[in-house]
Amino acid sequence: MLSCGHTQHLRHQPPWQSRPWVLDPERRAALLETPFPCGWCAQGLPPETTEEP
């Protein structure tokens, strides 16, 4: 869960983004606690309306 209250999964094989760093333990560790832009917040949606399946 993001600090804004929304949920976001970062997968290594999403259909529209390449995130090779999720497969490398050192690169993953380096990105922990890094701010992540929330797409739900960008749309102005409150956390309670954006549950993932």
Automatic annotation (TrEMBL):
InterPro entries: DUF3565 (IPR021948). Pfam families: DUF3565. This is Pressure-regulated protein. The lineage of its organism: Bacteria, Pseudomonadati, Pseudomonadota, Gammaproteobacteria, Pseudomonadales.
